[in-house]
Amino acid sequence: MAKVFNITADCKPGIHYMVNLDARLAAMKEMIDDGAYFTINRARQYGKTTLLRCLNRYLQNDYYVVLMDFQKISHAKFESENSFSLSFSKMFLRGLKANQMSAKDDFVNGINSLDRQMKEKNPDFELPELFECLNEICIGADKPIVLMIDEVDSATNNQVFLDFLAMLRAYYIDRDINPTFQSVILAGVYDVKNLKRKIRGDGDRKVNSPWNIATDFTVEMSFSEAEIAGMLQEYEDDYHTGMNISMMAKNIFDYTSGYPFLVSRLCKLMDEELVGKDSFVARRDVWTEKGFHEAIKLLLMEKNTLFESFSEKLINDPVLNSMLCNVLFAGNSIVYNFYEPSINIATLFGFIKNQNNVIAVSNRIFETWLYNWYLSTAEMQNSDIYAVSLREKNQFIVNGHLNLRRVLEKFVVHFTDLYGDRDETFIEEEGRRYFLLYLRPIINGTGNYYIESRTRDRKRTDIIVDYLGEQYIIEMKIWHGDEYHTRGEKQLVGYLDAYHKKEGYMVSFNFNKKKKIGVHEIVVGEKRLVEAVV
Hints:
Layout: H1 22-33, E1 38-41, H2 48-58, E2 64-69, H3 81-97, H4 105-120, H5 127-140, E3 145-150, H6 159-173, E4 183-188, H7 225-239, H8 245-256, H9 260-273, H10 283-286, H11 289-301, H12 305-316, H13 318-330, H14 341-348, E5 352-355, E6 358-361, H15 364-375, H16 378-381, H17 384-392, E7 397-398, E8 401-402, H18 404-419, H19 424-443, E9 447-452, E10 460-467, E11 470-478, H20 482-498, E12 503-509, E13 518-524, E14 527-533
Parallel strand pairs: 1-4, 2-3, 3-4, 11-12, 12-14
Antiparallel strand pairs: 5-6, 7-8, 9-10, 10-11, 13-14
């Protein structure tokens, strides 16, 4: 059976195209060899389950590995220590017996003791009795035991689970005199060190963190450009598309920053959705710049669990919503503070990151999706500037090419007519938003755009527009004097060099009362800049 790109559940090496995880697995084994207890906290669909299952196989020669999934323990089983301990025992034994175990007497006796408690459903079997059995198994085992628990979030609101963690911690502290698990790994979105915030109560046990023994997990789980290239090479060996692997890997990484779901989804769209569609007759036509940007367009238009989660967080967290809107449209630099609840939750879900101690959206895909989100609100789409663009959009496409100069000319006219009497604050805070709102219906459904984060601030923003494989670079800036204006022209020229373009575009929001509104050309060296002044 041919391999496929996978976006659901875990990836399996025999049937899915995957990046090579060996470096991650080796780094994690070093932590386990050192006896570290740690958590893997990453956003959903970030490859946690795949990594744990691969680690399970990777450790088999040196350890007994018990891999558990707390999603398989129902909520009702967490209502008492007895019901949890019995359910845990059943799942633990199943996981332990999946190993190739020796017949060492003490080991077998410990397993049988736990098995008996589980089968007899002893009503007095609670956490202390569970850990006595686990301790007996660890003492008797001829190899150290590693416990891995996936989807640990399923238990985070339960006091019994906190008590379970506290017992693990107690045995960890005494491990020099009483053998216990070599390592415990807990995987989920939330960091269990913060669980104390979710439990109400006056007792000290409910206030202190039960998992303050965890070692920091610093293994990088995002895919690197080289890792993406390795996965594409495996695909290329199977299908011989003739793709430029290094170029394709760079494009995918540039847009996703290595977010595993986004990487796999783009590849899956190209492999399964584009072949035979429109001009993509065969795979060789898909794995090109044109095919890549078509996949980007499809991804941004689709409904998937990741984007649904993002929209849910924005709707339910107005602070986060406002924060990201200010970052994207006003160019505000907001200090990154992980302890601010909205920043914390957005980081845990992988939507934002700490970039030089300020908030930044995690990748281009998320950023473009956010722009589309904000520009799709009823308030925005009911605006006059959107309506006039939607009405006149057909005049901007000539022989299949985007006439961007014409777009700028008409934008100057419409923006001046509609908002020319507004004050400086409105133009500074809303000008760029209204230009994107004007641009969107013109390219929507055919082209893509993204904001170059390295140049986005209160003074300057660069937009890269891709329309049917042709790229246009537009600099939007707020007027801050002639000297800054000249410097901006030089910066745009440098950017055009990087993209191998001879023509660039500028939209200048100018507060100078003597400004000359309109569109004119500037020649800088061999480059031609078309500037619109509003």
